[in-house]
Amino acid sequence: MNLLEKSNFSCVFRSSLDWFHSSGLSERVGTKRNRFCRETENFYALCLSHRKYLCYTLEGLLPSRPRGHGASTTYNCSDNLGYIRGLNGKQKQLIKKLVHICMIDGKKTRSRAIVYKTFHRLAPHGDVIKLLVNAIENVKPICGVKKVRISGITRLVPSITATNRQETLAIRWMLESAAKRRMGKKSISLDQCLYVEILEASQKMGIARKKRDDLHKLAEVNRSFSHYRWW
User: Fold this and answer.
1) What is the reported pLDDT for 141?
2) Beta partners for 148?
3) Which residues sit opposite 156 in a β-bridge?
4) Is the pLDDT of residue 80 over 60?
5) How far apart are CA 52 and CA 181, in angstroms?
6) Cα–Cα distance measured from residue 186 to residue 123, given in angstroms and rounded to the nearest whole number
7) 65 torsion bin: left (phi>0), alpha (psi -120 to 50), beta (else)
8) Is 126 left (phi over 0), alpha (psi -120 to 50) or beta?
């Protein structure tokens, strides 16, 4: 009998468990003498409860997890991203920055998995990298305001934002907006909320885009104080 067949897999362990009970060994499981019998029954019960997982494992259908001391238990789905091959240096740096800003407490593997799952969701809508770049370009703030104290009064002085700072703020705002969408909704994952936010930002919509527009309006209102900028 082939153990790898799903239809035969449960029959093998069920028949083995029936034999175990019919042999009378199960009645003496609690004794010290039959400790092996108790462990055997637990093993058979575990195999019955996880027979589907064991079938897929034996057939090699499940992705391999890292082994050994210090290996992470989070599945890294970067091996399945065939459509992200052949990127230039700037695009790789952009993805790396997204992973680093999304990371919390140094859990880079988990952050990378969230980002790549978001890319998987964006794949049916076209080029993933192009969508991400368009979303960041639509959310990037060109200018901002800085608090400057002048004659005992705090003024909001508008200033030009550096290019690297613009990308960082755009990614941070999209992640914050995705986290706000997920707040109070445990059934929705972060990668799903980030996917929606990137998709809306690429169409000049969403919470992050509104935050950028509000900042530009604030800088426009306080443009009369621009001559106070000394940096």
Assistant:
1) 95
2) 155
3) 147
4) no
5) 35
6) 24
7) beta
8) left
pLDDT of residue 38: 53
Burial, 106: exposed, middle or buried (Cβ in 10 Å; 0-12, 13-18, 19+)? exposed
Check pLDDT > 60 for residue 12. no
Residues 55 and 6 sit within 8 Å (Cβ to Cβ): yes
The predicted pLDDT at position 126 comes to: 86
The model's pTM is 0.62
Which tops the pLDDT comparison, 4 or 138? 138
Amino acid in the structure at residue 17: L
Q: Checking DSSP bridges between strand 153-160 and strand 143-150, what pairing results, if any? A: antiparallel
75-84, 99-108, 110-119, 153-162, range with the lowest pLDDT: 75-84
- What SS3 state is found at 150? strand
The full set of domain ranges for the chain reads 89-141+163-220
Residue 48 clears pLDDT 60, i.e. is over it: no
Whole-Å CA distances, 71 to 68, 95, 109, 157:
6, 23, 11, 49
What are the backbone dihedrals phi and psi of residue 106, each rounded to the nearest 5 degrees, phi first?
Answer: 75, 15
Please determine, looking at this structure, whether the domain spanning 89-141+163-220 carries the CATH number 1.10.150.20.
Answer: no
Whether 151 has a pLDDT exceeding 70, the answer reads: yes
How many residues make up the chain in this entry? 231
